[in-house]
Structures are given as C-alpha cells and as structure tokens.
Queue: 4 jobs
Job 1
Amino acid sequence: MLKNYLVIASKSDPAGMNIINQLSQFRYNPLLNSISKSEKPVFDVYLVEDSILETENLNTEKINQYDFVIFASKHQSEKNEKSLSVHCPGNFRTANAGGISNKVCPSSALFNKFLFEALNKISEEHELKDFNITMEATHHGPLIDIPCVFIEIGSTMIEWRSSRAGFIIAKTIQESIEKFRENFYREIAIGIGGPHYCPGFNKLQKDSNIAFSHIIAQYNIPITEEIILEAIDKTDEDVDFVVLDWKGLGNSEQRQKVIDILEKNYISWKRNSEIKR
C-alpha cells in the first residue's frame, strides 16, 4: 500500500506553484513532516529552485524516503491547447529535456489509472469544458528510482495561472492520495504506438479495465527490444500484456517487427480495437 507521497514542484514554474498553493488547503499537517506515522496516506510538498526535469536539481536522498512522487508542472505545446495531462517521465531515446537517454522512471499502472480517472471525474464535476483531459506518452526527465508521475496544466501563462485549473489538479492529487487502493483485478499494460497525446489509450485508461503505465509513442519508431523491455521492467506491477495502437504503428513491416520482439520474449499483446470497454 502506498502511504507516504511527495508532491514536487519548481518555484520557477507558475503552474506548479499554482497547484501547490491550491493544494495547501488539503494538507493534513501544514508543516513538512519527515515520514508520517499516521495510518492514513499523507503527502509532503517539496519545492525546488530550478527545473524539476533535471535530476541534479533534486535531493534524491530526500525523495527516496517516500513511496510515490507526484510532479506538479506546467505543460507546453506548439498549438497552445488548453489541457490537463498525466504522464510517466523518462526517455526511450535521447534525453533532450532532463533525465538519461534510454532510461525511464518506475511507474505504477494502477495509480496512473486512478489519477487519470479522478482527473476526468473532478473536471466534469467542476464543468471544466474547455480543457482537454489527456494522457501523454512517456517523455522528459528527471530520472528517479521510485514510482512517479507528472500531472500538468497546459499550455500558456493564462492556463498555468488559472485558479480553477490549479484547484482541479490539486483536488485530483488530494483525492487520489486519500482514496487510492490497489485493485488487483485490473489488467496491467503498456501501450505502444500512436501520437503523443494517446487518443486510443486515453479511452481505454478511462473506460476499460486496463491500467496503463508507460506509453511508447509512434515517434520512437523503430521501437527496439530494449525500449519495450525497459517499459515493462519499470512498471511496478506485473505486466499482463502490451496494447498496440494498430494504426499508429507505422506500416505493416514496422508493426511486424514489434510483434516479433514481443513474441520472442513471450509477451502477450492485443490490438487496441480488441479491448472491451
């Protein structure tokens, strides 16, 4: 059971500080506690001066005292779309924004699913109709050794400072920490293929029994055996199968290469269209 959580944000990030300020109303104890002995799950807040994408900016000795880390952050996109997003950190290819190339962070598929479901529910309850609620494929740093996830507000200063968006993210974090319990009836999966914002996997994470950890986007093609095994190895739970975004895996030759890798390693797989919702 996850008991001790750490929420990390950067003082230089307006979205991160917006979320932290909103989150203060949900603290059981406003003082930073080293590891609480309370029976109920609790969280501490850790603010860093510079970017949370760079591992060297983080006190990893402090972080390693906790069961789970939630990074609260801004999101930027070329189209400047309004969004609330969730994703695992790490780099399947070259590390261009923190972390280490070819390495991803540990991830909990069960917590990721609970967090994403809570984000959708709370956004609907508060009628946040103009924001896109989405997962993102695994990308960027930092690289740490305990399970973690990013939850972000996108994509401009207006959204980053939106008290409504900050409240919804903060409420999502608080509710997920307070109510999350491991559901061993979930089917654990990683996703392969499709665009960065995971339209095919979003629906399954929200409406099916599948819980996703890492998502390997199409832009990582050619997808190697090392990439797939890294995603599976860094999933906290035992992975039941891989879900393939069939149309988002390039041409038939590229799809077959991925299938060959999976079958060589005795890893079960399904097309996303085969999953019941």
Job 2
Amino acid sequence: MENILKGTSPQESHLHIKKSFCTMQPSETKLVEGRTFSSPTRITSRDSTQLLSCQTELNQTIPSLHRSDSLANQEQRPSSAIDSTHAMVVETRLTTADLDTLASNASEQATENTRAMLKRELVEELQPKYLRHNVWDDNDHFSKSSADWTETARPLPLIPESELANPIVSKTIEENPLLFDIVTPINVDHFEKLLHSHLNQPFVKSVCRGLCEGFWPWADSHIREYPDTLDLSYPKPENEDEAQFLCDQRDHEVFKGCFSEAFGDKLLPGMYCMPVFAIPKPHSTDLRMVTHQSAGKYSLNSMIPRDEITGYPLDNLRHLREFLLSMYHKDPTSPHTLFKSNVSEAYRLLPVHPYWQIKQVNRIDGSLHVDRNCAFGG
C-alpha cells in the first residue's frame, strides 16, 4: 500500500533545543529550516569573568502550522535571500604583558609581511561571512575558477537503477507523460562541438547527457524510510502582493515550459510537494520565489549526501578582482573596459530527470504543477 504523508511541514514539528555547547560544530546546532544560530564569544582579560555564551539555554518551541492555517509564523521562513547569513561581532580587549619579553631580531621586510598577513586575517575574520572571500589584497595569485575545476572534475552521476526500479514513480510517469518533459534553451549539439577540445571529455559528455536526459542531483531516496508521497505545501499567502507575485511567476514558468500545466489539487502517487513562498531580494523590495527543498524530516535535500555536492568553485568577485589587479600590474596606465555578461535565471536552464521532477511539484493558488528544472532552494 502506498505510504502518503501530508502536511508535516517543518512548522509542525515541536522542536526543543536545550543546550548548545562550544564543542559542537556550527552545522550541528540548527533550528528548523537549516539555519545555524551562533552565539558571539567575548575575549576578556584574566581579571574579568568570561561570558560562556556557548552554554546559554535556548529552550525554544516552534508552534505548529497546518495547511488550513494562515502563515502566522512568517519568522520561521527566511525573510530575505541572505537571511541565513549573520555577521558576528567580535569584541576584543588587548592586554599588556606583565614581564619583559625577549624577541629575536627580524628583518623589516619579514615584519611587514607578518603584519600584512595578520591584518588580512583580522579583516577576513571581522567581515560578514558572505564577504570573507571578497577581501581585496595586492597579489598576483589566481584562485581556482569554475573553468579550472572542469578540467579535473568527475563525470556527473547517472540516475541509479534503484530509482528507476521504483514501481510507484514509474507508473505515475508512464501514465502522465504530458507532466514530465526536458526543457532547456541550450543548443546541446552546438555546445558539445564548442567543447570538442576540452581536456576532460568524460565530464563534458556527462553534462551534455544531463542537458538531454535531465540531471540527477546525486540523490538517494532509499537512504532511510521515506514516504512514497509527501505534501508539505503552504497555504496561499495572506499578503496579496506575495500571492499575486507567485501566480505571476507560475504563469511565467508555464509559458517557458519549465512548469507543467496544472493537473488538479491532489498529488499523484510518488509525488513530493515542498513549500513555495516569496521572499525579498537582497537590498530590494522585489520578490523572489523560493522552493524550500530543505523543509521537514523527509526533505529533498536530505536525500543528497553533502560530501557529493561540496568543493565546486563558483566564479565570484574574488576572481574578478584578481583579474583586474593583474591587468593593472601589467599596464597601470592603459585604460580598460569591463563588460559584464549575465546569464538570466542560470539554474533554470538546467533540466532535471523526470524521476526527480516528480519530487518537485509546486502548489500555487491551490493548483499543482511539476517543476521540470533546477530550483532556487534545491
């Protein structure tokens, strides 16, 4: 008999966190939606009493939320796209040595290098987490870029045979072919020709295969007992602007073919429906639609081993400043023009395999749609 679990969103879990100890890794102290809470530690002199903030009692209880309820607990959701990033303010107090200290002689150059290194480390430590890799310094070092990584990357994975052998999922996909499709604007044949001289052809072929058949996100739905069908969708937002934005975004995705047409208000066997909501973009009043694929005990992201998806360098401002500084050192007097090429909705260009599409069902304004592409939040 099919195992169906409905309405067990993370808001329905009465989670009690009693203590947080200094010996725990940050990833082990989490509350609901994968958000890590840290307590600042104060460095004090030997004559003062140290604040043991890591042992503060939390004792927080998360109220339940059912699909029929209103979203009264909006604070449980990220309030912006960078809401999970918290700047930690570190208070330091310098003390002087009680005794005379002997130091060996050091060259002026070595001392300056040491000071520069300590200064850079201090600046990085005091920066908000999302800026720590964007501290500009004056050197000729080039960090590893995405292009460099592709030369040694392992091929992307095929869907496991155990997933293809799931009779419930296979039956739903076979009986509803119009709901599942591979949609991408990328010309795969031309893309493959452009990469014919790439040093890592196994990786190139795996990417092209994913563009044709849909990517599989390293997931294993058999790592523990997951329900066959799961509905964690939120009710329609009470805020009219958010509700209208979600409807407009849904219509846009249906027009592009990334969302299927609506197929009713009840999940078919084998489907998963994660919460969908709108959050403000950073430093803006504009909204962004987010699929919360880390929601609940049986979330989609919990099916993906973390070790398989870490270590992939994404090009960022660090690479840009390294290039700009290098160009300046080569010819500081020559004018340079910088062109920025932005790939709109880059992740949405990547289709996912139909056996993963069936787990990306979205409920918007009461209607259900299959999301066929990579989602922001996955």
Job 3
Amino acid sequence: MNDLLFAFLISLGINALFFIAAASLKTDKVTDLSYSLSFIVIAAAVLIRSSSYDTGRLVVAGLVLLWGIRLASYLLSRIIKTKVDHRFDGIRESFFKFARFWLLQAITAWVVSLPVILYISGDFPRALGPFFVAFAIIALAALAFETVADAQKSAFHSKPAERRFIRSGLWKYSRHPNYFGEALFWWALFATTVPALYGSFADILTVLLAAVGPMFITFLLLFVSGIPLLEKAANKKLGQDPEYVAYKMATSIFVPWPPKKT
C-alpha cells in the first residue's frame, strides 16, 4: 500500500473512532485530543512501517511527538475547565454536520503531516548536516514560543484582570503569537526534510508536495479557522473599547513585531 494512502487511512480511522465516542457521549472533550493524536499516530505508524530508525527519522517523529503532547495537554486541560466547546453549538446535534467536521479534521491532519510522511517513508540517504540541525532547533524554538504564549494567556484568564484582553508578554508584539509559533513550527519541520527530499527520485515535485503541509496550516490559521474567527469574536466583544482599538492599531496581527507608537 502507498505510504500516503496508508497515512490517510490511519488519520481517517482515528477520527472515525473519536467521532463515534463524541457523538455517542455528546461530548466535546475528545475533539482536540483526537487532533493531536492523529499527528502522533501518523508519524509513529509510518515510522514503524518504514522499519528504519535512523537519527533523521527519529528526530522528525520526535518533534511531532513533542508538538502533539504539548497541544493535547493544553487543549485537554482547557476543555476540562470550560466543559463545552461553543464552536460545535448547532453542529454536534446534527449527525452529518458533526461527521463532516471529523472528516475535515482527518484530512487536515494528513495534509499537514505530508512532509513528515514523505521524509520518514522515503528510501533515500539522510545526511544530518547543519541545515537539518538548524531548522530542527528552530522547530523546537517555535514550539517553546507557542507554549509560552498559551501559558501567558491561560495565566491572564485564570485570575481577575483589570483589562479585558491580554497585551503583555508575547502578546505585546503580536495579537496571535501562539498561531505564529504554530506556523513557524511546521515550516521549520518541513525545512528539515528538504535536503533529503530534494535528493530523492522525484526531487522538486516531492519538495513541492511536502510544502503543501505548512502552506495549508498557515492558510487555515490566517484565513479560515484561526485568526479570522478570533478577530471577529474580539471585535464583537471589544470593538467599542478604546484600549482594544489602540492595541489593535499598534500591534501586529501575526508576526511578532515591536508595537507602533499611537
């Protein structure tokens, strides 16, 4: 079986199982857990299927594992506190609408994982040069960056605050620093695979296919399910707040940057 098809079936199977549990129990607590787990299991399954455990493969799979554990623990603790995910209001009650969400989640996990799948499953040399090491370090730094951003926001919301929105720490330099860290992680992970992928039989075509992964997650964050939804909610809640308007005008929406003087 083709490795890409194998990985897709893995993602589809995981999300189908979690969909059955979520629909049966009418719960939102397993949704984000299944998203993180999809990436981890895809990487692990392709690694086992390859029967090769060289350093390059282990590093790439290990980065995905760290990313998945970090995201799963953060989102699971958040949903346990909030108990309900209002994104699914009006959706979880409909079998087909709810099933469509899980199908899209399975596809998303597979597409974003493309560089991981192609790198781990490919039969080509993996010389771990300075390029690989540099971008593996950047991926770790990006993971740490989004972890700090999420921790700062959680701490802000865990106690009464004079201000209604966070604008300290990393949030002083970006309105969505966690999403920037997320996108940077996947771009850096993709970059670690480029030297090996470019030396494979398909060369540039393989690299372009792998690049679909980070491009897709960046597109989702910037234009679909990430920033647009949060910006819309913030504008509805805080659009008349002069402090928020000033913060919005002065602060980069995505890439961290020193705030403008207003």
Job 4
Amino acid sequence: MDVFRRMSRAIDYIEENLTNEIDFGAVAQKAYCSSYNFQRMFSFITDVTLAEYVRRRRLTQAALELQNSGICIVDLSVKYGYESSAAFSRAFYNLHGVKPSSARDGGVLLKSYPKISLQISIKGEKPMEYRIESKPAFDIYGIETVCSTIGDENYLSSVQHWQKCAKNGETSKLEESAGKFPDFMKANASKPYDYCAINGASYPRGTRNDIYQYMLFCFKGAENPPPNYATVHVPAATYAIFTIGPIKWEDIYDLLGKLQKRIFTEWLPTSDYELAEAADFEFFGSAGGFAYVELWYPLKKKM
C-alpha cells in the first residue's frame, strides 16, 4: 500500500506542474524512488509510460481550455511546453483526431484522459509463486542493447533485442561460449526444469534516467569470455524470485507481462520490501517441450 501512496504523491506533483517543465527525476523523488525504478514501475502499474501519461494529460487539459476559453493556439502551445504551434497542432491531432482550430466547434469529438487514481485490487486469482533468496556476487557477459524507460521508439525493446539476436545468429554464438552455471543456481534442486544457457538482465545505465541496459547473458566462469562481449559485475543481493510454468513457448511474452503487472500491483504494495537500485533478471527454463520463467527482482527493506 505504501508503494501506491508514494506513486499518488508523484502523480499529484505531475498534476500541479502540467504547465511547467517536468523533471522525471523530481517526479521519482516524490515517490522516494530512483527514476529508473519509478519509470519502470509506472509503466507496469498503469500500462502507459510516464512520458505518454504526461503528454495525454497536457493535451486533455489543452482541449478543455480550447472549449472553455478564448486562449489562442500559439499561447496554448507555449503554456503546455511545445516548441511551436505546429508541434502542438501535430500532437493535438495525433491524440484527438482533430486540429486544435476545430476543437471549439460544436459537436466535435475529443478524448479525455483523467488523472490516474491508484488502488489495490484483490481479485482472488491463482496465487503467485515466489521465494526470497540471498545470492552472492557474480559476473555475467553477453550482448547488450539500450532500452527506453519512456517508450522511446529510437531504442529496441527487450523482446526486439532477443528477436534481432536470434535472427542474425548472435544467440547461437553466445550459447557456444557459455560455461557452467554457478553453484548457487543449483540450490533449487526441486525445480522440474533445466535453465537455458542464455537469459536476460536489466540494469540502470549511468546517469541517464530514461534509458537502461538490457543484456542477453551467460555466467562468467574462471575463463575470460570472448573479447567482443560486454561484462558486468553483479554485487551480492537479496531477490524476490517469481516463477511461472509450464507454459507454451509462444505464450511466454504475454504471460510474462501479466506476471510483471501482478508483481507491481499486487505483491510489491503489500510486501515489506521495495526495489533496490540493481540488476534484475529473467531466467528461462525448459522441460517436456514447455517453458518456465523465473523473474528475479533485487530487494531492500521498506524505509
């Protein structure tokens, strides 16, 4: 519940500053959260990126002003942070389907995106399976890409990164270089599946809050990996580990997204933990032709 209260404070801050420049780092501070974690949580909880939410709210308010005041389009575009009236008109048309000059016409159909209100919904669905485990430090290596926390189309998504590497043969080359899994991965001996050689990791990227690194990785053993791969050291951490499966391989991304949404809307708000500023992982497994997935999220005790 504390997570939702913090998120609500951040949303209130956005509402108070729709006509000002909004620093996403300042928004995250209102939620007592890093910008990296806040923007990813926001997307999972609301099904829209933070940047898109701000855009929709501004253009909703702009439409109301056009209908209820005599403000000119040039002044309105400046008020809501657009560089020119032409840029504002394009954004307005893309959202509402009409030009700003037509918004005052009687009977015109406009879209309204209200301020988000957050609440916990207890649905009584199948319970999530999870465990809390502390893991020692380890090293990984693999193929990196840059992803966007705000849905910037100039960057690949993690799914697109997998697809691209599979298509150009990079996943096969990475798998050939893979060594043994570390001993701590064998602790859950009761699991009915074998881990895949290649898995996925997400982690913050420097001082840029709107992007993060995503890597298709293998564990680094005693021998150095081939020089063309990036390497990352992962410090010791405590993780919440969620498991789904057996599932069909073709359903994996759809069900993975649903699990992530449940983690952020159901488990995290009611737990004694919050996300730590560290790497999280997707481990894939296989047994009997079916897929299994483990999501590892680094934790710290709530303040």
